[in-house]
Amino acid sequence: MRPYDERLDHFLSRAAKVFADQGYHSTTMRDLAAATGMSLAGMYYYVRGKEELLHRIQERCFTRVLAGAEATLAALGSGHADPVDRLQAFIRHHVTFFAANLAETKVLSHEANSLTGERHRKVNAIKRRYVDLLESLLRDVAPDEPAVERSAAAYALFGMMNWIYNWYDPAGEIDPERLAGLIARVFIGGFADARSPSPVHGG
Amino acid sequence: MRPYDERLDHFLSRAAKVFADQGYHSTTMRDLAAATGMSLAGMYYYVRGKEELLHRIQERCFTRVLAGAEATLAALGSGHADPVDRLQAFIRHHVTFFAANLAETKVLSHEANSLTGERHRKVNAIKRRYVDLLESLLRDVAPDEPAVERSAAAYALFGMMNWIYNWYDPAGEIDPERLAGLIARVFIGGFADARSPSPVHGG
DNA sequence: GCATAGTTCGAACGATCGTTCGAATATGGA
DNA sequence: TCCATATTCGAACGATCGTTCGAACTATGC
């Protein structure tokens, strides 16, 4: 069953590109058929319907993001690295991943509420784990910050990072690494360094 | 013709709420009829069609945002206020406006590409003026920063501020003023203070 | 009370949507 | 070569969409 899985994967990637360009709701199954070279009916051999297609795209992408972030942090050593370094690594991973997978991550961010029922709940469960991961990092970085402000800061950081699907051009002047460095510098400089003026750069 | 304008305004506000809750494309004209108490055909007396409805909502909201920002800056004095204070005032106005008009500003942000043709171009023209305004503020705040990084920082700030439609709850623990203060603190502390460690707070 | 303009709406139209179904074709071991 | 399974697809279905049209209702000046 290898060729089947490969064709499904290719189908998901192509569909993600179309969803990213036109939006989920204004993309028709006929658009997807034209973009993938398959026939209208042929797509239903790989996917139960349009909403399951979106679900598979989002779940596949979000699982990779979460696993990648955990692997990045694990590579830093078992918990006794500098909290600021760990936060910086998280930001760098998120931004570079989103910049390298603009179509999929745009579908993830922009169509976050286009799923319904059980499928919506499943994707939200992954999101919860990912948000919790960042909040635990912020707790280590700024333990004296009020919880309300720390939670809002987490969403502010996600805003900076996720918003790039609205403007970032991979062919433009700023490369993903530099963008990640800028966002990390802004957030860490503004949030983490507010109280403890320890050196940040050069992990 | 006063009652006509009032009913149109009320119609736009109601429709904006529905667009914000369900999304533009999955909202049907029948949904809007039910939410406004009008009949399906009756709405076409006030609006040429569904897309013009979205256009009027976005243009009305964006015009207010731009005018409000300009008025806020003008109130600070004719150009010889501290650049950091001017940036802080811009951020505070943006965040409090967005928090106070969550439905309209969500439609503005999330449905930014749901318009087509001339209508899309018109709204983008206002957006351009608004982005240029922030970039001019950043130029005064950090004149030594490379232009590429300054432009990316502008979008990062917009990301922080616009993303709130995805998570902010006005009935929650953090009020708009405090949220604006947090975002201003993070961005100014991380971006503007990177080189010139001048005092920021207390304007 | 009547004419005019302003406003509302029931009913229907054509278009397009997601999905289905059975037949047609390709694939691979015996 | 033949059969069973895997895969593809043309054609159509019912549902729902945005929009239209002409009639009906309302308000106002005379």
Task: List the SSEs and their pairings.
The structure is a homodimer of 203-residue chains.
Chain A: H1 2-22, H2 29-36, H3 50-75, H4 83-100, H5 102-110, H6 117-141, H7 147-162, H8 176-190
Chain A binds a DNA duplex (30 and 30 nucleotides) through residues 4, 28-30, 38-42, 44-45, 49-50.
Helix proportion of chain A: 55-70%
Shape of chain A: elongated
Average the pLDDT over all residues of chain A and give the rounded result. Answer: 94
Give me the Rg of chain A, rounded.
19 Å
Order of helices and strands of chain A: HHHHHHHH
Biggest sheet statistics of chain A: none
Structural features, described:
2 copies of one chain form a homodimer. In chain A, helix 3 (50-75) packs across helix 5 and helix 3 (50-75) packs parallel to helix 6. Chain A starts with a helix and ends in a 13-residue tail after the last helix. Chain A has a single domain (49-194), classed as Tetracycline Repressor, domain 2 (Orthogonal Bundle). Chain A has helices spanning 2-22, 29-36, 50-75, 83-100, 102-110, 117-141, 147-162, 176-190. In chain A, 68% of the residues lie in helices and 0% in strands. Chain A is elongated. With 203 residues, chain A is mostly helical. Chain A binds chain B through residues 23, 25-26, 110, 112-114, 148-149, 152-153, 155-164, 166-168, 173-174, 178-179, 182-183, 185-191, 193-194, and chain B through 23, 25-26, 110, 112-114, 148-149, 152-153, 155-164, 166-168, 173-174, 178-179, 182-183, 185-191, 193-194. Chain A binds a DNA duplex (30 and 30 nucleotides) through loops.
